[in-house]
């Protein structure tokens, strides 16, 4: 049974349609990540499920029960916000205990203690339990905020960019932890982020949103390898996919109605200039540590691709480009499958 | 001209030593990034540079002039905070123009500067809006605008992009860097985001527990980390460490890991028997059937272009960045090849890198 379902839900703020005809069903134990830029409607979706917003149309179901009319407290959800909101006058321990001590739950103190101990260890804050919330660093505060949701065992956790204020190392650590916890406990999580690495590594399914619409829903591999359109393709991949007009490339290798070719770094091979293939110029090589980006100029278009460490490239070099199974898009930006064509070739 | 110099700067809050003797010089025109985990002392260091905190020891010099005791207002520098503080009762135009108004600039001049600044930050269409109704990103741009409009000698920025979404952040990174070059500023910038640091910085200082661990160009910091902390903090995923017990001699070019000699850059120091850690970045690890260094695959994270494969060996876990097209099966045993010229060897107890050909190359380059 679906743990959470949205049935044709819409929500507007004045003239702005924040969420449009959204249908989404999250299975028990599933980790779904909503990915999209600011203003895509991700946070509004979470707030609609939590009951912090009422939909204009449509229904919200939690464990098969229509909860559209229920207030947040009646819904069995836990929300983790982007900006930590802790009780500054309480210790870390009491902050974590707060949701468990609420009159609605009244868990006995021994159980509370055990639960907090578990969660504190998970989040590496067991040394800080006696500290005041205000005596913590930003990263620690956010871990306490996540911990406050984790001490409960709701039907679904709703998380709104909970890791975005942490440093990269801690973020990577917590990402793996969160995924592990979710797998072990079989919890259901709907997670909002604009970080594609978080989406790729944690999600069972990713929902890509744009301007209030759910554009595509699928496994990370589906979203990355078979994006429905150029918008979805551009959401994933570092460096981002290069979208190049088809007429700049050899058309004979393409399906007929292709207008744009999507070139990810793995689709591009940089070859010696005497090879057949369009000629590009190296503009510069950007060193980002693990990734060195080559910026190329092809006619009037810029391309960015990963540098092969074994290939010595410098600004001004002329190179020839070869392509491997790129993505093709039609005039409307929808992907055109190239499978048929390859089989014939 | 603005050159910022910190000499032995320290700061304690009660018994807590937030900054324990920091030395660095930011030359004129340099974009200098201080990077470190939360609580490492980077914000305190910046606040002392700005004059918002008084150091408990050491000196701060601006263009050679000792400003250690001067208040923030007497230093010609602008501070951009992590949490944007805007005047809620003023509109965008008034917010950006405020610093100029305080300095009694002429009205026409304020107007021109504000509009120029707003255009630069792509918020010129918002000039007459109240700040209350703006998105987080636009509020941050207004806050930036207020700092930029004065055209100070130096900018100090405390995670100014922390609240923005990643796309806008990348755009602002590029904009900020371009702005820095155009107005010939000196910038000290704090972040915990290594990609931001790598993309923007001329030089990076990595801080840890109140101390500077290493200062260098982004490439130096990444390729030739001086300590295990730096190696571990930079890189996503970070460097893997394989443990070894060995004694070393000058000129050694390999070390035994799991009983298998692994080639590495020439070591320049004799070391008695001790514990070492061989550091390797994920992109310098590949699978090689013939290799005697073997491990078992325990996980693979799909990232699109590449995948991160975690392999456990007798000497520790190692992460490899491989093309995602390569079939990898959890549980299988694989041979590992490490790119010899890119390995760092650390003293596992002190965490310091041993001098080797890798590091010598860095000094010449």
Question: Any chance you could write out the topology, listing elements then pairs?
Answer:
The complex is a heterodimer of chains A (345) and B (365).
Chain A: E1 2-13, E2 16-27, E3 31-35, H1 42-50, E4 57-62, E5 65-66, E6 77-80, H2 92-101, H3 109-122, H4 138-150, E7 156-160, H5 168-185, E8 189-193, H6 196-202, E9 205-210, E10 213-218, H7 220-225, H8 230-235, E11 242-245, E12 260-263, E13 268-271, E14 279-287, E15 292-298, E16 301-306, E17 318-323, E18 327-329, E19 335-336, H9 339-344
Parallel strand pairs in A: 3-8, 3-9, 6-7, 7-8
Antiparallel strand pairs in A: 1-2, 1-4, 4-5, 9-10, 11-12, 12-18, 13-17, 14-15, 14-17, 15-16, 18-19
Chain B: E1 4-13, E2 16-26, E3 31-35, H1 42-50, E4 57-62, E5 65-66, E6 77-80, H2 92-102, H3 107-120, H4 136-148, E7 154-158, H5 166-182, E8 186-191, H6 194-200, E9 203-208, E10 211-216, H7 218-223, H8 228-233, E11 240-248, E12 254-257, E13 260-263, E14 271-280, E15 285-287, E16 294-302, E17 306-313, E18 316-323, E19 333-338, E20 344-347, H9 357-364
Parallel strand pairs in B: 3-8, 3-9, 6-7, 7-8
Antiparallel strand pairs in B: 1-2, 1-4, 4-5, 9-10, 11-14, 12-13, 14-20, 15-19, 16-17, 16-19, 17-18
């Amino acid at each position: 049974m679906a743990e959470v379902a949205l049935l044709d839900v819409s929500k507007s703020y004045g003239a702005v349609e924040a969420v449009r005809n959204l249908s989404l069903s999250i299975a028990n134990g599933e980790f779904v990540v909503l990915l999209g830029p600011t203003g895509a409607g991700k946070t509004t979706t979470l707030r609609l499920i939590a009951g912090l917003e009422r939909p204009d149309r449509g229904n919200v179901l939690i464990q098969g029960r229509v909860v559209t009319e229920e207030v947040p407290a009646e819904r069995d959800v836990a929300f983790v916000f982007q900006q930590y909101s802790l009780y500054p006058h309480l210790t870390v321990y009491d902050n974590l205990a707060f949701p468990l001590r609420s009159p609605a739950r009244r868990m006995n103190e021994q159980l509370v203690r055990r639960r907090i101990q578990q969660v504190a260890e998970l989040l590496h804050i067991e040394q800080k339990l006696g500290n005041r919330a205000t005596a913590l660093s930003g990263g620690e505060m956010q871990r306490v905020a996540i911990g406050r949701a984790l001490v409960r065992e709701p039907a679904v956790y709703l998380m709104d960019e909970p890791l975005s204020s942490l440093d990269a190392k801690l973020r990577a650590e917590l990402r793996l932890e969160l995924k592990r916890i979710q797998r072990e406990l079989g919890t259901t999580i709907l997670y909002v982020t604009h970080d594609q690495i978080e989406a790729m590594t944690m999600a069972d399914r990713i929902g890509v949103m744009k301007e209030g619409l759910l554009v595509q829903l699928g496994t990370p591999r589906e979203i990355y390898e078979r994006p429905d359109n150029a918008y979805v393709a551009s959401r994933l991949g570092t460096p981002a996919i290069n979208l190049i007009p088809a007429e700049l490339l050899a058309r004979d290798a393409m399906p007929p109605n292709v207008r744009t070719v999507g070139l990810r770094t793995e689709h591009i091979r940089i070859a010696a200039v005497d090879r057949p293939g369009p000629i590009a110029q190296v503009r510069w090589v950007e060193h980002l540590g693990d990734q060195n980006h080559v910026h190329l100029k092809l006619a009037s278009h810029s391309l960015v691709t990963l540098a092969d460490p074994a290939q010595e490239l410098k600004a001004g070099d002329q190179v020839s480009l070869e392509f491997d199974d790129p993505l093709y898009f039609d005039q409307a930006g929808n992907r055109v499958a190239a499978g048929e064509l390859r089989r014939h070739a | 001209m603005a050159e910022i110099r910190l000499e032995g700067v320290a700061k304690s809050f009660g018994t807590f030593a937030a900054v324990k003797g920091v030395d660095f010089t930011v030359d004129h025109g340099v974009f200098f990034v201080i990077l470190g985990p939360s609580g490492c002392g980077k914000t305190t260091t910046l606040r002392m540079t700005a004059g918002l905190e008084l150091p408990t020891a050491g000196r701060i010099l601006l263009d050679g002039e000792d400003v250690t005791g001067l208040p923030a207002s007497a230093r010609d520098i602008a501070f951009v905070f992590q949490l944007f503080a805007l005047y809620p009762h003023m509109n965008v135009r008034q917010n950006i123009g405020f610093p100029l108004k305080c300095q009694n600039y002429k009205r026409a001049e304020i107007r021109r500067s504000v509009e120029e600044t707003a255009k630069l930050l792509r918020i010129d269409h918002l000039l007459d809006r109240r700040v209350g109704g703006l998105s987080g990103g636009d509020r941050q741009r207004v806050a930036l605008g207020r700092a930029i409009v004065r055209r100070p000698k130096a900018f100090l920025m405390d995670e100014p992009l922390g609240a923005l979404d990643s796309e806008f952040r990348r755009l602002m990174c590029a904009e900020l860097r371009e702005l820095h070059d155009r107005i010939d500023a000196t910038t000290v910038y704090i972040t915990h985001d290594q990609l931001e640091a790598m993309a923007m910085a001329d030089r990076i200082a990595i801080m840890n527990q109140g101390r500077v661990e290493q200062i260098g160009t982004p490439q130096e910091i990444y390729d030739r980390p001086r300590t295990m902390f730096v190696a571990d903090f930079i890189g996503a995923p970070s460097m893997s460490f394989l443990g070894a017990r060995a004694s070393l001699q000058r000129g050694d070019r390999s070390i035994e890991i799991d009983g298998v000699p692994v080639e590495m850059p020439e070591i320049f120091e004799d070391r008695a028997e001790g514990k070492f850690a061989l550091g390797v970045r994920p992109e310098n690890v590949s699978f090689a059937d013939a290799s005697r260094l073997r491990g078992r695959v325990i996980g693979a994270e799909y990232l699109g272009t590449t995948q991160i494969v975690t392999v456990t060996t007798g000497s520790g876990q190692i992460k490899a960045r491989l093309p995602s097209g390569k079939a990898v099966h959890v549980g299988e045993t694989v041979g590992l090849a490490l790119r010899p010229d890119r390995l760092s060897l650390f003293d596992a107890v002190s965490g310091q890198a041993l001098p080797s050909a890798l590091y010598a190359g860095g000094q010449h380059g």
